[in-house]
């Protein structure tokens, strides 16, 4: 069975993922960042999924030793699919058209966590977070992302 490009697995050679994590630690405010890029390798079907790049920065504020809030900004860039899988007919379904791939996205995130330094939940951290789609620019006919 042939699936559309977004649902295809990478090729036999796989995917190379590189990640850089930056960690900052100040008494009342933390500042962290992360950047990663994914290189898709060509597969046996004559196409390669688009490479992607993602960068995220976040900054929490500690209100006490137990409770903090944080906000983050995440940028995601997906490049277009290279090549074409001959078994997929782009005239049948828009997802079968490699030109309908790639785009840019910017998300705004919010989170909070509570730390239990003692008691039955000692060293346990309870947290909640959400991301809101702030900006999106996609190539061709694609479904847009929603809030996470």
Description of the molecule:
With 148 residues, this protein is mainly β. The chain has one domain. Helix content is 0%, strand content 50%. The chain has a six-stranded antiparallel beta sheet, with no helix packed on it. A hairpin with a 7-residue loop joins β7 and β8 (124-138). The two termini are 30 Å apart.
Helix-strand category = mainly beta
What average pLDDT do the residues reach? 81
Q: First CA to last CA: what distance? A: 30 Å
Strand content: over 45%
Total separate domains: 1
Order of SSEs: EEEEEEEE
The major beta sheet can be summarized as: 6 strands, antiparallel
- Give unreliable regions as ranges: none
Strand numbers in spatial order across the main sheet: 1-2-4-5-7-8
Number of strands: 8
Shape: elongated
Q: Please give the radius of gyration in angstroms.
A: 20 Å
Total of helices: 0
Helix content: under 10%
């Amino acid at each position: 069975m042939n699936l559309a490009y977004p649902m295809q697995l990478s090729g036999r050679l796989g995917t190379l993922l590189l990640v850089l994590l930056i960690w900052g630690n100040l008494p009342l405010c933390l500042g962290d960042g992360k950047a990663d890029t994914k290189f898709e390798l060509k597969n046996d079907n004559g196409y390669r999924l688009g490479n992607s790049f993602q960068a995220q920065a976040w900054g929490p504020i500690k209100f006490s030793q137990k409770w903090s809030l944080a906000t983050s900004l995440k940028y995601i860039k997906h490049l277009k699919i290279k090549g074409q899988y001959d078994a997929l007919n782009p005239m049948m379904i828009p997802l079968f058209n490699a030109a309908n791939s790639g785009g840019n996205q910017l998300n705004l995130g919010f989170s909070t966590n509570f730390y239990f330094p003692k008691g039955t939940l000692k060293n346990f951290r309870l947290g909640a977070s959400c991301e809101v789609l702030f900006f999106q620019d996609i190539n061709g006919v694609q479904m847009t992302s929603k809030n996470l």
